[in-house]
Amino acid sequence: MADPRFYNRLGPLTLQEIAALSGAAISDSATAARTIDRVASLGDLQPGALCYADSGKLFKDAPDGALDGVAILCPAEVAEQARALGGTVLTHAAPRYAFSRILPSLFAVRGFDPGCFIHPDARIDPSARLAAGVVVGAGAELGAGCDIGPHSVIGPGCRIGAGTRLAARVSLLCTDIGENCNILAGAVIGEDGFGVAMSAGRNSDILHLGSVVIGHNVTIGANTAIDRGLFGETRIGNGTKIDNLCHIAHNCRLGSNVIMAGYSGLAGSAVLEDNAVLAGRVGIYDHVRIGKGAQVGANSAAARDVPDGETWAGNPAQPLRQHMRELATVRRLARPDGKTSRKG
Question: Are the C-beta atoms of residues 12 and 102 closer than 8 Å to each other?
């Protein structure tokens, strides 16, 4: 559920209103007056929530009653499956697109008060230092000894732990930061992720309703961007160090003491377990897991999971030994005499 520190509720909406906003069809007109005031993912269903499914793939192993009390947007061809699991069904050829059209009528990110830089409802420890041009939204909390650089913006409801430093022009929305962190200039944390729904040649942004949670003793490099979760959190563990110009997409999870060098990027829901290391310019595909203590070499792209403790490299990334053998083979084939140089 969207955290009320960060989001205003605009609903509820009836199913009839949802159908009108999204272009979906209600499968049972007797349910048209039913109201919805929350949304959820299929992995975290709650009675009274609206969710969506692009196909029936996730219904196959669902237990009886899995959709009890839930309203679901789905394609017409899987409507019967959804009803059999207890769901109230709305059909649409592009359920994700329909879902994206409804969200702005149910929730809105809390905005800033145009009449003040420091909102009177913000709770700022007397020992915190704020430079010129800082903006602090309603309900935000700054702990003891925080040091906030010029023109940084702290969104409504955000929390910053004791001893944390924000350099100049840092932007926070929907974010909790632990103690003794160091956020360098120009970092942008908690904006919408890159969630786009498509239908018949039209694109629609998806409002993200999650947050960013950053542990203690974390460093975030200059001009790095960390997106908030679509549902739930994007999470950065204690002691993790992230270089300049990195990107961490929605719902990623970084464990403790992770190292992420410059120009690296994680697609949505990627996971870096404790003590994982990414060298410079590494890309990690969505939902890929980099295991505990694993390392990925520079300029690599990991399209599948890297086991704990292993070192992978290349594009696509593979175990380092295999990658080096392939490089040696290519070099040998490229030589006019077909022999491998002693220098490799």
Answer: no
> Is the model's pLDDT at 76 over the cut of 80?
yes
List residues bridging with 26 in a β-sheet.
90
- Candidate list 92, 247, 250, 323, residue with the active-site label: 250
For the segment 8-20, what is each residue's pLDDT rounded down to a tens digit?
999 899 999 999 9
Look up residue 3 and give its amino acid: D
3-state SS, residue 105:
helix
Nearest to 188 by CA among 220, 147, 150, 146: 220
Contact (Cβ atoms closer than 8 angstroms) between residue 88 and residue 71: yes
pTM of the model: 0.92
The b-or-e profile of 200-226 (16+ CB within 10 A means b, else e) is eeeebebbbbbbbbbbbbbebbbbbbb
In the block, tokens 């404790």 appear at 274
Give tens-digit pLDDT for 150-208: 999 999 999 999 999 999 999 999 999 999 999 999 999 999 999 899 988 999 999 99
Q: What percent of the chain has pLDDT over 90?
A: 85
Closest by Cα among 182, 250, 254, 184 to 218: 182
Reference 122, options 139, 110, 146; nearest CA is 139
Active site residue 323: no
Query: How far apart (Å, rounded) are the C-alpha atoms in residues 330 and 208?
Result: 45
**CB-based contact 216:181 (threshold 8 Å):** yes
* CA distance linking residue 253 with residue 283, whole number of Å: 15
End-to-end CA distance of the chain: 56
As given in the structure block, the two tokens for residue 4 are 């009320």
Rounded Cα distance between 57 and 203, Å, is 24
Look at residue 134 and give its three-state secondary structure: coil
3-state secondary structure 171-230: EECCEEECCCCEECCCCEEEECCCCEEEECCEEEECCCCCEEEECCCCEECCCCEEECCC
List, in sequence order, every residue forming a beta bridge with 21; answer none if it has no partner.
none
